[in-house]
Amino acid sequence: MNNLLTIFLFIFFGLLSGILGGLGMGGGTLLIPLLSIFLGLDQKLCQGINLVSFLVMAVFSLIIHYKNGFIETNRIYYIILSGIFFSVAGSILAGVLPSGILKIIFGYFLCLLAIIEIIKIFFLKSKKR
Q1: Average pLDDT in the chain
Q2: Which of 2, 47, 73, 93 is surrounded by the most beta carbons within 10 Å?
Q3: 70: DSSP letter
């Protein structure tokens, strides 16, 4: 693939995932498939790129949410501790599993998210009426 096109796609995919991350959806749900499908990158590399980009987005989001008073600090330690524990456990698991297995697991995860969103749209919305 042309180097200029590859650079453009990296920037474009980063822009899309940044917008989705800023909206609260999570940019990795889009960034990982885009990088692996269209740029042919290894699944582990895609997940690593996603983690680095997420850290940058998370810092800016945290600052903005804190300034707007949206962060409740009295119970935040439970979330932080469980987040650290499961992040380390997930990283160890991702390092051990082959990329092909990670792709399959991630695909099932995305399908599960889609099913949950469909249920929310059709079933939970109808209960509110």
Answers
A1: 86
A2: 47
A3: -
Contact call for residues 20 and 30 (beta carbons, < 8 A)? yes
CB 120 within 8 A of CB 126: no
Q: Which amino acid is at 47?
A: Q
**What's 69's DSSP letter?**
T
Among all chains, which residue has been given the structure tokens 């990982």? 32
Query: CA-CA distance, 92 to 73, in Å (whole number)?
Result: 29
Q: How far is CA 123 from CA 18, 24, 43, 89, 109, in A?
A: 30, 22, 34, 34, 21
The model's pTM is: 0.67
Q: Distance of CA 13 to CAs 34, 44, 50, 62, Å? A: 7, 17, 11, 22
Contact 71, 58 (CB under 8 A): no
What pLDDT, on a 0 to 100 scale, did the predictor assign at position 117?
86
Q: Are 32 and 50 in contact (CB under 8 A)?
A: yes
Q: What is the per-residue pLDDT for 39?
A: 92
